[in-house]
Amino acid sequence: MLKESITRRNFIKGSASLTALLGLGAASSQAPKGLVPKAAAKTNGKVQQFYNACPRNCYDTCSILTTVEDGRITFITGNENNTYTKGRLCVKGNTYPRVVYSPDRIKYPMRQKGRGSGNWERISWGEAYTIISKKILEIKKEYGSTLPICLNKYSGNFNILNYATEGMMSSIGYTTRAQGTPCDPAGSDAQGFDMGVAYNSDPEHFLDADYIILWGANPAWTSAHSMYFIEQAKERGTKLVVIDPLITQTASKADEYIQIKASTDGALALGMIRYIFDHQLFDKNWVAENSIGFSEFFAYVNKNITVEWAAEKTGVPQAVIERLAREYATAKPANIWIGFGMQRHVNGGAMVRAIDALAAITGNIGKRGGGVNYIGGETWGFNYHTMSFGAPEGSGGEADRMVNMNNFGAQVLAADEPPIKMMWIACRNPIAQDPEPNVVKKAFDQMDLVVTADLYMTQTVEYSDIVLPVTTPFESVGINVSYWHYWMNVNEQAIKPLYEAKSDLEIAMGLSKKLNELAPGSCTFPTSGNPKEWVEKELNDEIKELFNIESWEDLRKKGGTAKANEKITVAWEDLKFRTPSGKYEFYSKKAVEYGHHPLPVFTEEYKAPKEYPIRCMSPHWKFGIHSQFQHQDWLMAIQDHPYLEINPELARKKGIQNNDIVKIINETGYMTLPAKLTKMVPPDTVVMYEGWWKGVNYTENITVKALAEDMGEYQKGQRGIAFHDNFVNIEKA
Amino acid sequence: MAKKLGFLVNIERCIGCHACEISCKSFYQLEPEMRRRRVTELPEDLVGTPVRAFVSTACNHCDEPACKNACPVGAYTKREDGIVVHNQELCIGCQMCGKACPYKVPVYNPVKRKMDKCSMCYERLDVGQLPICVEKCPLEAIQIVDYNEVQPENGVSIVPTFADPSITHPTTQFILPKPGKQTRRSS
């Protein structure tokens, strides 16, 4: 193992032989042991190891190896059987022991007297189930249906068994659901129109790319394991280009960084396309054989787009666009990764369609090492058994009612006939993570009962009536796949649940039991069951074949992690697109059906209002995934407060110096936070990072309006949020 | 010939993620505020074009360890392979080593009331395993090198924020990042 680790390393370009690097343990007379002795843990008891899966909303979805000594977790690290993560976790994953044993865990069910008062009292699970069940039955009686009950659940835990929460709601009747995603909707619609669905190639194939453009993606912070493959490719001679309005950590590693005006990426792609057309650098055979609508698109570009115009629009000099276009079009294969942040604009979907078109005309789609990679769902074909039980007989209403998760507060307030009176929140923190948090609070104010299941006292829990303590991944069973890599990971129960914590599945069974006690037949969800039996029910023949496993137990025995069959890891290799025509659609009738132009046309960006001329972006932060992780004391010890990144030029104009407290304001709200002067952001933009810092009154969304993206309905049911079209003013506080 | 083991930190590779620091903290179950390895932000203009750059450092296992010289109870030893080992059994927690070290490496453990520092995971090395920070860096940016055998091309002994190496002759070396091409809108 040691030898492998060393021979993998190639950054020493010296003359010495590899074996000279280190003595390979030869100095020692001690034989290697299975488990490494630790200074801190001296145990005579039982040492066990378990496979776990990080279930957070993250590209990397790591397979984990957990060491347990005498029933207590002593170390959590990556599972070496996984070739994507290679036995290593990101910084967040390395905090997992502290996530489990944090003094901040919610230990037992509690009821709050006065929402937001902090006046909590401990109650038993029985009492919690009874209060909730009685309210459900009361609502059902009063309104004739369970539609006044609203579920808001999303991405805090992507363990497939956590869909038990949705299943539990379906099992009591028709309810109101927060639908859509704040994540990828506009881009996913764009790729849906172009290719039928978003489908990315294996990130391990970055090694096969001749040229990589990271377009608004920052994997150094959001996908460290992908960044490894990109760095390896770079060392082998692959050129790395990063296009981003900000000098991100990833941009700092690029061979070439191109700073673009935010939300003009479509213009850059179209300008490159014009150059490629003019210089006959496009793949005529590819477009002839594999696409429809190419001639219409060709005509559109020639009539409407010039490179000069693109330069003016994007702030990228014409010569740079021309060189970039030539390099991209002549590299084989060339790989584009479109980040989610890039499409969080009012024209996000249109921009992704333009970038897709760039990849298509150069014949890069369907090629190993190439592609226009965004997100994928090819490995998610589970049974979703937990959602299969259906409404009980005599449920009022005919179907679930949808409200847009991305404008949750306003749509809950607007819901009528019947109004929404109760919320169940799981795997989410809407009061901090949603746009217009003050409107979300108002929606909470309208509720008779707000129940939140969580690990910690988040801003949303603080504003709830009842909190239910949930388990960490290490305390329950599950199975996970990624929307990026091609691995499936087992999650074993490594330790007993701490305190009185329960998994979402156990909560669903417990609530169903109580409902059926109080009103027999009122909930179809099973009232008992072994989680291992539940997880086995998620696997069908197709998914077992895809991963070459017989069962969850078989996957566990095989090392806890398995990769999908190679045949699906190159997106669109068979060039059978899932569009109505089966071809790549430059001209999409489906797009027209959803109210868009059929072609990947230029769409104007959102313009800054006169009073609020500064763009405020709120990208992901390296110590957090949304509001998870950063609040842990291990990370607070590194960075204990959020800050605002300001270009020194803008700071000078505003009389702001490093660490000055700055007020950031627009018509939606305001907040204050310290300034960090940096050239990493352009002078017309400030940046504050997403996250929950313990003890700090902060949400990056306080000035974010529920301004819709251009797309999202086709693939996700609802449009997304233009998080980065947030315009503000700043002043020294 | 005896070894001279030291860390080689590739700043070109480092993404400043702190996984080295936190995996170490996790493995050794350190108190939340304690660090055996730390990641420090470097000046933006380090390489000419502005970039986000970081350096990860731990104990530098110096040739002339100031900690060892300052310790009144002989808790420090320098192994033949160059690793500076602190024996917590002998430590009286007087913190003289922490004051003497130009890199402020030894830190106080408030629970044990003793000093604590990076051991280069010698227990792991002795059984043929890599130090945790080396093994767990997602970018493979940290390495152990026998500097008596290897002089890495581009290796340097000093980076901004790092104390003058002439005082204690640290063994750590760094590989500086290469500037990339940038097209920036202004400033």
How would you sum up this structure, described in words?
The complex is a heterodimer of chains A (733) and B (187). Chain A has 733 residues and is α/β, with parallel strands linked by helices. Among the domains of chain A are: 214 residues, Dimethylsulfoxide Reductase, domain 2 (3-Layer(aba) Sandwich), CATH 3.40.228.10; 83 residues, Barwin-like endoglucanases. Chain A has an 8-stranded mixed beta sheet, sandwiched between helices. The longest helix of chain A has 19 residues. In chain A, 58% of the residues are buried. The N terminus of chain A is likely disordered. Chain B has 187 residues and is an alpha+beta fold. Chain B has a single domain, classed as Alpha-Beta Plaits (2-Layer Sandwich), CATH 3.30.70.20. The model of chain B has no long low-confidence stretch (mean pLDDT 96). The interface between A and B is large, with 84 and 67 residues. Strand 10 of chain A pairs parallel with strand 11 of chain B.
